[in-house]
Amino acid sequence: MNFLRRHGKLLACVCLMLLGILGLCRGTLEENILALVPNKIKQQVALFEHSALSQKLIVITLASSKEQAQETARALQNALANAGFIVPKKPLAEDVVSDVLSALPGLFSPKIEQETEQKISPQAVADQFAKYYEELFSFQSIFTTQKMTQDPFNLTELLFKRWGTIGQGVQALNYTDGFLSNNRGTILAGLYDAKSAVSDIKAAQRLQQFFTEFQSSLPQRVRTFFVGGLRYTLENVTLIKRDLTTVTLAGLICLAAVFVCFFRTRRALLVYLLPLLVLPPAAWITQLIFGHISGITLGFGSVVVGLSVDYAIYIYFALQQTKIEAGAAVSKITGHLWCNFLTSGLCFVALLFSSIEVFKQIAVFALLALGLAFFIAVHILPPYFKMPTSAELKTARMEIKPLPFKGAVWASILLLVFGIWGIQHLALSSNLDDLNSTSPAFAKDKQIAEELFPSAQGALLFALGKTQEEALAHNEQLSSQVPAGLPISALFASAHTQAQNLKRWAAFWTPQRQHEMQVLLETQAQEKGFNPQAFTPFWTWLQASSANSNFDFSAWYNPMVKISNGLYGVVNIVPNEPIYARLSDGVRAVFISASALQTSLVQSVKKEATWVVCLALLLNGAAVWFLFRNVKETLLCFVPVVLGSCFLFGCLALCKVQVNLFGLIFLPLLIGLGLDYAIFQLLKYRSQQEELTQLYPTRALLAAGLSTLAGFGVLILAKHAVLFMMGICALVGIGGTVLVSLFILPALWKRYV
Amino acid sequence: MKYYLSLLLCLTFGLSWAQPKDAALQDYAKQISTVQTLQSDFTEEKHLSLLNQPIQSQGTLAFNKALQKLRWQYQKPFENGFLIEKDNAYRLQGPVKTPIASAMGRMFIGEMLVWLTLDFDSLQKNYQITHEGTQITFVPMIKEHKVVKKITVWLDEKDPRIVTQVEMEEPSGDFVLWKFNNTQINPSLPAEVFQ
């Protein structure tokens, strides 16, 4: 009972931690690029992600010869189908011509009607037969003999011509024998519908295992791999998990080093127990609130480790180095911790106003963790930090001499100039891939795959609708506004249009016209020595053709996508030209080009960052003024923030670091941390006047700063571009802030306060 | 139909036959494998239900095994043909040479190259092979094959390296007959032949 009374609160915290771990294990780790972009461009990115190809499983085969590539790609296709990974492809009909011909009545638009009129004119038929006749004496007759009997007027050319214009103006696809291929035919891509959802990590892992086994059965120079949504899922989760392991281990090692340097006592171990107590429940609650948790949010846990441990460090040193009574010391230092909590917390509150989902997750996670850490540090840990003897007290003291006033001013000016130069030369990366967590191996694979697809110079035009029929009808409407039309609309007609086309077809092929054409055909056939009876299959089909259209081009390529908000979209691959961009109304028709999307992304993230930083500055400014009620002190508190930021920008520009957009999240954090250190120094300065300086030993600030760096800066080891960016900003930004707080700020206090 | 030329070429030029079990076939395979270059005139007769009368065309062919080059040239009644240079194929229309880029064309070339590199073991997997003297018959293993019903190859009795005649019969009853004459085995072929 006595044990429970003494350690009950701590045990409750441990229980909460275990509960959090259990909860987290049952939840899902989700990586979605949509969570990383502002609301304003979320729809565009979502649509871009829904391009017809993105939902496909793209299987690449590389071989040293065309034959080997074909053979392997076929074997792989069969193996994937047998293993249940892909929806088996409907084999391309032996009789492609009759298939395409059967689609013609349903696609018999006024334009195609007009072209058909021309094709069946006596001169056109004579020319066609002359061509057919000559072909019989060439190797092409292999392909055309059967076609001649099925389609003597060569009507299928009207649809093949349109099929060939899909993606025109972007880059011609090289499609050979069921696979996309490079010019030499040694790289082949098979496009399949995966049976599992693209976000299914277990399916992605099984598929990876399948490919590893399949690869082992291949000759040395043959390689197969897959790209597409499932590979992204696999890459994201694998990389984040690996990063989390690396970062956690490295963080622990660095924290151990800080411990050895500054603590070296058993009771101080509790300082580092604090983050372990607060992180799992905070992450679990965040997961409950959002329904899932991002790997980036968890990765941010290392930042929270660094921040939360500060509270315990300040309490620990205050109790270790002060001569006043423990209760009074805790009470005194609690005010300081409140200030810290307030400034850090307000930065995260500012992040809550961002429209980027991961920022909100991070804000909630950090606020929960810091709140809990504050509570535990102030109310639970103090009894465990045993007071040292006076001998220990003496040896533990350490002071750092700040710069003289002139030196501090010159250093400040230099840092300001460095910062301004840095901002002017900062390299911002707007590449969406920078937000994805993928390995260098994947980047290489993706580059190989991209050789086979239309380049990023093209654009996508989405015609949206609540139903597939509505989307198709809308696409037809858009097509009518472009002089050349949209090839997709000519090959994928809405049911309403198909019905009209069938009527048009029936009206066109009147018995009289059929008779006239039969006579014309027989005349031409006789002239060239063809047997008129050979064309019977065409006339038989024509008489039955008005009933319906048996073939749908979606068997070859499906441009219809289902979008997450319940809408359907027809995807048109179009050139990146104003004539297509003008069709976009942003609601029912959306035009997206990779270049425009990147521009929008940069603009909206910059806007978001500016808004969040301004809000953080405003809230923190108000909070600091409220705490100290002194304009000079308030302004001086922002010195580490400003100069630390300058140092960061200057170093990033100097080292030519490509700053991805997520690096901007670090700015509000820098404000919070910079303020924390400034407040520490201010309170230390004030306490000198009250002779309570032992409450704020320099060792505490150093230990806190280095702990934060250890937790935060190890992110530099992460492979994920976002986590890496946070790491490098932490290492340089926090490092700069700590140095400014230690060496420049004290000189300014003395002069101005 | 798409198989016939490639099969024909394979048989004519005897590229890389593996050793069949039949002793006579083994002997033919061995002899044919010595063919490095070849030049011949040919007559092609098509008996198609599409036409009232059979049609006939004439031309020449040249082949270089080491360079993987083949020229199949029709001369009468129309001047056309095709040229294969390793992985590339071209359509010949009079003096004009254009790359074959269409899916069907590439498929044809693909098939052609598959046949050019096919060994006799593979051939035995797909065809039932019988022979009476120098007349060899290939019947597809697949019942109701949509393209080929039977292919018959006649080798020269005196010199089995030379194919004298090939007939390909389709399931529809249509058939094509090639007759080769003036065949030269391993002649010196100047580069211009394949230009």
Write up this protein.
- With 753 residues, chain A is an alpha+beta fold.
- Chain A has a domain at 2-32 and 233-437 and 596-752: Up-down Bundle (Multidrug efflux transporter AcrB transmembrane fold).
- Chain A contains 30 helices and eleven strands.
- In chain A, a hairpin with a 2-residue loop joins strand 2 and strand 3 (179-181).
- With 195 residues, chain B is α+β, with helices and mostly antiparallel strands.
- In chain B, helix 1 runs parallel beside helix 3 (103-117).
- Chain B is built from four helices and eleven strands.
- The two termini of chain B are 27 Å apart.
- An eleven-stranded antiparallel β-sheet of chain B has the order 6-5-4-3-2-1-11-10-9-8-7.
- Chain B has helices spanning 2-13, 23-32, 103-117, 120-126; strands at residues 37-47, 55-64, 69-76, 80-85, 88-93, 96-99, 127-132, 135-140, 150-155, 163-169, 175-185.
- At the A-B interface, helix 3, helix 7 and strand 2 of A face helix 1, strand 4 and helix 3 of B.
Question: Secondary structure elements and their pairing?
Answer:
The complex is a heterodimer of chains A (753) and B (195).
Chain A: H1 2-26, H2 39-49, E1 56-62, H3 66-82, H4 96-103, H5 110-119, H6 122-136, H7 141-150, H8 156-163, E2 175-176, E3 179-181, E4 187-193, H9 201-216, E5 223-228, H10 229-262, H11 269-290, H12 295-299, H13 301-321, H14 326-352, H15 357-379, H16 390-395, H17 405-425, E6 427-429, H18 440-450, E7 459-465, H19 468-479, H20 487-491, H21 495-508, H22 511-528, H23 536-544, E8 560-562, E9 568-574, H24 578-581, E10 589-593, H25 594-628, H26 631-637, H27 639-654, E11 658-660, H28 666-690, H29 698-713, H30 721-752
Parallel strand pairs in A: 6-11
Antiparallel strand pairs in A: 1-4, 1-5, 2-3, 3-4, 7-9, 7-10, 8-9
Chain B: H1 2-13, H2 23-32, E1 37-47, E2 55-64, E3 69-76, E4 80-85, E5 88-93, E6 96-99, H3 103-117, H4 120-126, E7 127-132, E8 135-140, E9 150-155, E10 163-169, E11 175-185
